[in-house]
Every structure is written in C-alpha cells, then in structure tokens.
C-alpha cells in the first residue's frame, strides 16, 4: 500500500478511531482501543509503510504530491483515487497524527490545523449560515469570545451567551434556529464546569450540534464525544504539544462532519493548515502526554491547597478542591482535575499585579500546558477582549490570577508562590 493510499477523503480512514493501518491489515482493530492511554499515545496508528522501517515516522515536508499520470491526478480530484493531492487537503505526517488523536479522544475522525483558533473557526465556518443562531457559554477564552462577538456576528449569525452551568438555562434559550451549542469545560479562566451529558441531551433535542473546547482537559482527562458531544476542539499549542514551542489545533468529530470541516472549513474558508514539522512535534509530545498530565495534576493539587490555606487569597477556583462548588460534576466527567487554577487575592487587582511581579521562578506569560509554570492576569491579558462590565457579569473578576501548573518540582513552585504572596 502506498502512503498515498492511506489518505481517505473525508477522514473515513480514521473511522474506527482506534484502528491503525497495521492493525487494519491484521484484522485486530478492536483490541488496540482497549490498551492503556500512554500505550496508545505512543503506538496507535503508527504508519508502518516507511521503506526503511523507521521507528519514528518521517516528516513529509512537502506541499504537493506528484501524480504518475494526468489521469491519476484527475482521479484524485474526482475522489476515485484516494491518494494525496496537496498538503492543505492531507499529508501523511498529519494523517498519522490525526489517526492517533482520534484513537485517544474516541472519535471517528480528526483534523489537525494551524492553531486552536484555526480549529474553532474552521468548525464554525463549516456549519453556520446567515440567520442562524449559536448559543455559547459566558466564560470563554478571550479570542474565542472576540471571534463570536466581532467575527461571526458581522455575517448575520446571532451569538447569545447562556450560563451553561445550569442546563435549564440552555433549555429555556434554545430554539430550532440554534445550530451550535459551544462551551469550554473547565472554562478559561474561571474553571466553570459544564455538564457535557446534560447539555448534549438538550441540544440534540433541538437538532443543534454540541462543540466542546477540551483544551484544558486533553483527551487523557476527559472525552466529551463519549459523553454526548458532537465535535471536540483543542488548542494543541498547549498540553498536546506540551513544550511551548509550536502553535496547532485539533478537531475531532464524526467522519461525516469531518468531510465538511476538512473540505469547506479548512480547505476553502480558513486555510489554517498545520505544518508537517509541527505535526511531528505534537506526535512527539503525545508520547509523554499521560506522564506530563499526571505531573501537571499533582502540582496543581498542591498549588491549590497552598492557595486555599493562604490568608492573602480570598477564593480559589480549582475543580479538585472539595470546597469547589462543582467538584462532584467535575469528578463525574474528568479522570483527574487538570493543571489549571485561578484565584483571587484579598487585595484585588493591584495585589494581583504585585503578586505577578514578585515571582522569581514562575513565568509571567499567557498560554498554558507548558513545562514552565505560567501565571497571568486574565482581565488585562487573555480576557481583555471582554468589556469590563461583561467580565464582571461573567465571573472574570479584575483580581483573578490564572496559573498553569508546570512540570517543575512542586516544592520549588510552592516556595515561589509563597514568597510572592507574602511579599
Ligand atoms: C481554551 C482555549 N481554547 C482555544 C485557544 C486558542 O488556541 P491557539 O492560541 O492555539 O489559537 C486557547 C488559547 O489560549 C485556549 O486557552
């Protein structure tokens, strides 16, 4: 089988979500889905077609693919021949990563793109039309909020915010005009948890698709499709890449929806293609995803406990704390509670900035999921696209500080946070 033949238009080659090309040949596909997460993150869907048997798959740094004949080129365009055409439509390095990610997330199909925003916008441009309505949660990553507020709404798409912590709010607002219900869980930055099962049941009752941004959790901690969601997006810039050295996004869905997302949303609307080199780096990052997530979770639990016990801190938002009001819900849909924490200082906004400036080890930086512990101030940084009144209404307070727990030794992170708090 040539590498070209691995590519199946519309992602149908990913259809089992747990089938590697080699297993497909040996007819043992159901077995691999039962292997452990780390095993699948390392081995699943490895393309064994390299003529030299390279253990690490080669990077196909090519924009286009040569056709043997003009007729073959025409057949690829018409879909009669499923070989590769052009990297914006598919590439073996991307394809292997996509199959592995589909396996890990439990999805039929996957598409990798150039950034998390590229993933989100490619999904929306695939399914919405003027006159449609979309319902989104109140708390979203700032640029996602800006896309809905200033991007989609310019094209006659009505975007309404609903507090989805209570599914009844969605039940009241949804109508047959609603095309997509969108949320993050845990939500950036204030860690709201949304009940994926309950929201999906309500949305499906009205024929709407449910799209979940699973960036904070990764496929290791939470699998929204298994809980009823239709489409999952990730900023792979974060935990999936894991080393703060690339930008990437991931979309997971049914094979049918992916046909539309790949050939409309990505190919014609956003063009947000992932570079093969970045696909290689994500595949490398995936090999340690389970190990890294366990450490991120351990460190976050320790940081949250320290913050909760600190007199300078008035509130901690971390789903793994028993005092967190949505602790039980988080536990019911997540394997562990993740590496993200938010908190408020009793001194409010000014104390928040003072705290950041007092750090000696942890970095003042946006983004998350890196090896380094990253700390930022959402109101003036990631969530500045919100109007101050909206931030107040949606629970993104001016004094909120967001921490992405890194992979350093916990004792050093805790010492740095402790000294910055007391300063
Ligand atoms: C939850 C969430 N979704 C999406 C994005 C956008 O991802 P990217 O920066 O890769 O475009 C981010 C970025 O911070 C994010 O935090």
Give the helices and strands, then pairings.
Elements: H1 21-26, H2 29-32, H3 37-43, H4 70-78, H5 92-105, E1 109-113, H6 116-127, E2 133-137, H7 142-151, E3 158-162, H8 167-173, E4 178-184, H9 196-205, E5 209-213, H10 218-221, E6 231-235, E7 249-253, H11 255-270, H12 276-286, H13 289-308, E8 313-317, H14 327-333, E9 340-345, H15 348-357, E10 363-364, E11 374-376, H16 388-393, E12 400-404, H17 410-422
Parallel strand pairs: 2-3, 2-4, 4-5, 5-6, 10-11
Antiparallel strand pairs: 1-7, 6-7, 8-9, 9-12, 11-12
Helix pairs in contact: 3-5, 5-12, 6-11, 13-17
Bound molecules: pyridoxal-5'-phosphate.
CATH architecture classification of the largest domain: 3-Layer(aba) Sandwich
What's the structural domain tally? Answer: 2
Radius of gyration: 22 Å
Q: Output the number of helix runs.
A: 17
What CATH first level of the largest domain would be assigned?
Alpha Beta
Can you list the ligands bound to this structure?
pyridoxal-5'-phosphate
User: Biggest sheet: strands, sense, closure?
Assistant: 7 strands, mixed
| Mean pLDDT metric | 92
Structural class: alpha/beta
Low-confidence stretches: 1-33
Protein architecture, described:
There is one protein chain. The protein is an alpha/beta fold and 423 residues long. The chain has 2 domains: 287 residues, 3-Layer(aba) Sandwich (Aspartate Aminotransferase, domain 2); 134 residues, Aspartate Aminotransferase, domain 1 (Alpha-Beta Complex). Helices cover 39% and strands 14% of the residues. The protein has 17 helices and 12 strands. The strands form 2 sheets. The protein has a 7-stranded mixed sheet, sandwiched between helices. It has a 5-stranded mixed sheet with strand order 8-9-12-11-10. Strand 4, helix 9 and strand 5 form a beta-alpha-beta unit. Helix 5 runs parallel beside helix 12. It is globular and about 75 Å long. 50% of the residues are buried. The N terminus is likely disordered. It binds pyridoxal-5'-phosphate. The site of pyridoxal-5'-phosphate has 15 residues, from helix 6 and helix 7.
